[in-house]
Amino acid sequence: MSETFIPELPQELWRAGKLELAHGVQQFLQVIRMATAGLGQFLAEIENRGPKDLYGHGSTASWFAEMAGLSRGEAGAVVKRALALNPTRALDGTEVPPVAPCTAAVAAQGLVGDERIDQILEILKKLPAEISAEDRASAEKILAELAPHAGPRQLTEAEAKLLGWLDPDGNEPKDPEPKEPRREITLDRRQDGFWKLTGLLDDETGTRTAAALEAHAQPRPVDEFGQADLRMKCERMGDAWAELLDLAIACPDQPGTSGYRTLVNVTVGLEELKSGLGTACLDFVGTMTAREARLAACDCLMLPVVMSGSGEPLDMGRLRRFVTPGQRRALNIRDGGCAFPGCHRRPKNCHAHHIHHWADGGPTDLRNLVLLCGFHHRLIHHGDWEVRMATDGLPEFIPPQYRDPLRHPRRNTLHHL
Question: Is 119 helix (H, G, I), strand (E, B) or coil?
């Protein structure tokens, strides 16, 4: 075995930058995986020589459990993996090749961990027993080459393709009769203001739901500043659900909303609406922050009931502020999608944002409107970025000073290449 390089920890880890931290994790992860592969070679050799003759134990797993302070189950999983990745010897001394030699090769380089190795071994078990050794070896090689760059979902998709190739007929279904669709949804508002959504879907509806959510939950591409999407998958799925609701409610045939994104009365004080501080009251629902009310006022059928300090209604909603279908089409053509620099989101996923806010007297015309996706809409409302209309009639964005000390205006060039 070659000597394994052990990276050194910086003396003051708290001073390390984000790239140095990521590189350190990458290095140590590779070392751990290489060490695990080396450990497997030792365990396979102990199994070949016989743990009883060597150490008086009935099995390699029981000896390793005592040696490493593990449970029998934990040790057994490690030994089972080691025997699948390394050659063993039969009773007559002949060598038995490993079950997954290509996987063992990438594991020895520290490119794949135990989780993906176990997944590959499980997939190999599902391959039809009657296929040739060449086909089985080809399937294992495909999985081993994919594993260093793939997650569990990609390997599952590869498994389906391999089984379709090697066993197109599949197993005979036990129950050919289709099941009755069963769909249940419950939606409850919690005391903290969040809503809890639970449900049960039949296979077809669940598949369609998963496909729709996955399509809208893809990570945002790295922008021109090198900022990656840091949301967890559950957060991206939640945002995707909100986008699907926007698309459904914006449909002209949607019952009760006539194609407007939101239909709700909001009672908010005039000063709160202008400043974004304080709270607003939603009819039949509860409260929302004034900042959220200000954000929602950009592109929805939310009728604000603006109150004076003494509680007198000052404005029952300025319906002319709503973006007309013609204005929306013109916005889609002009901006081509989210106008924020580096954003790839298409028009259907965007809101129409008032540059000079409606609550401050801003008009609803093309010179005061810009398309923004949900993420960048919130960033403009709640962050340090600014948006303005340039002299050529196109929107441009001013970054915060910490991103660009000179605050040079930036534009999105992705939609009109």
Answer: helix
